[in-house]
Amino acid sequence: MRPADRSAPRLRRAASATAVAIALLAGLAPAASAAVREAPGAYGTDAGRRLDRTRLQAGLNAIQEAGVYGVYSGVRDGRERFDGAAGLADTATGRKVRPDLRHRVGSVTKTFTAVAVLQQSDKGRVDLDRPAGDYVPELLPGERGRKVTVRMLLNHTSGIHDYIGDAFPSLLKGTTESLDEHRYRTIGPAELIGYGVARPQLFEPGTSWSYSNTNYLLLGEVLRKVTGQDPERVITQDVIRRAGLRDTYFPGTDPRIRGAHARMYESFYGIIDPPRDYSDYNMTWAGTAGALVSTPQDLNTFYRALLGGDILPRRQLDQMRTTVDVKDETGAVAMRYGLGIYSMDTPCGPAWGHDGGVFGAGTWALSSPDGSRQFAIGYNLMKYQRLNEAGTAFDPHPADAAMRDYRDRALCGTTAPQTPDPAAKNRPSAPSAPQAPSAQAPSGEAPAAPRALPPVMPALPGPLSGPIR
After folding, report:
1. Count of CA atoms in the C-beta half-sphere (13 A) of 173
2. How many CB atoms lie within 10 A of CB 21?
3. Which helix (H) or strand (E) holds 143?
4. Greatest CA separation found in the chain?
5. Which class for 198: exposed (0-12), middle (13-18), buried (19 or more C-beta within 10 A)?
6. Distance between CA atoms of 84 and 61, rounded to whole angstroms?
7. 74: β partners
């Protein structure tokens, strides 16, 4: 790990453009067209894919040993289950993590929101190809409201800017003070949407792709209009309860997580050193884009029910899995984004799901296309990666390779090859010896002045925020 006092000028040069400093997806470029893709895979019930609990636990241990404080996970294949954990839930007390801890799941919330919108579409209350401005003219007025459809909000082809930079304005200046200043703030969706809509349009609606949390707050307000209810209540009644989830809920204005949970530590690529505890946070800034609390086990149950056809009719599920290619800097397809869900390739075929990242908490949940096999993982140290010496990109990190290996082992069994990790040799990891982080109490002292942010900080919550692909 680089020393904490690395030169501010290098970081300042790296963050020369504030728009780049809050880029939504590090290294991902937009695609030009949408298509349904369902590549053949090797999912099945052969012996090579059975759950090897010893190796799965070893995979979790490897993630923790690579520098993540604590990881907790669930894997399911038919009736088989593995629940495991490794590391610390609290670095100050030494409390251990356990598999079923509640956790902020960030943008995994988007799948839940999309399902609720598609349910209303099935009832005839929402037309996916109707202008979004027809539903929320006061939030998306004028020509933009006529051009942006509900479908474009769902698959991030609207061209509407993300609100994160304006909601946390110090990020635009290259520092993190606003993360602490707004820890207990309550902010409404209309104000947040206003930030995104006030920014210039990124591209002509429907012609490209750019991840924006504003899209999913707008979808929440569409739900409010067509149901006459609070959108979080609609999602709770129609999605969470229908799926039979017991540990999944929207926290509202309560900054604390109910029930057993880990402390959640944010490093911001070494800018916050030691990592700070953000487990208490008012999540109204994320709302229907990313405020949900859940567990790995509940997420596995949810994606199994969704992809197995128990929550949406087949026609709506097919719409959900109509995707837009999202490409990396080389032009290769990194993932295919549908309506609140994405598909990415694994050694045994495509997997469907979402990931999420909020301050201190990361989540990844993927499933086989038929819903027969799932994995979900939560981890409590975010943005442990570091910039290269030039300040232009992230160095490879052993925890990322370990997480990919665990994902492949969980979904594909012993058929999954192990990924060589170029960062594991001759390179120290993120803080592997836990340090007691500085936790800001409501009336506590102000945190130390942070250093400048790196050039490609993913917005939060956002897909593949980490990065972990």
Report:
1. 12
2. 20
3. helix 142-147
4. 59
5. exposed
6. 10
7. 83, 376
- Triad 149, 151, 154: Cα angle to 5°: 120
Q: Which two tokens stand for residue 330?
A: 């080389």
pLDDT at 330: 84
Average pLDDT by consecutive 10-residue portion of the chain (469 residues)?
33 35 33 40 57 96 97 96 98 97 97 98 98 98 96 98 94 89 97 97 95 97 98 98 98 98 94 95 97 98 97 97 90 92 94 95 96 96 87 86 95 68 39 38 40 44 40
Rounded distance, CA 28 to CA 342, Å?
14
Residue 98 CB neighbours (<10 A):
14
Structure tokens of 195? Answer: 């930030």
Q: Is 440 exposed, middle or buried (0-12, 13-18, 19+ CB in 10 A)?
A: middle
Predicted TM-score (pTM) of this structure:
0.86
C-beta separation of 126 from 113 below 8 A: no
Sign of CA dihedral 384, 389, 392, 393: negative
* Gyration radius of the chain's alpha carbons: 21
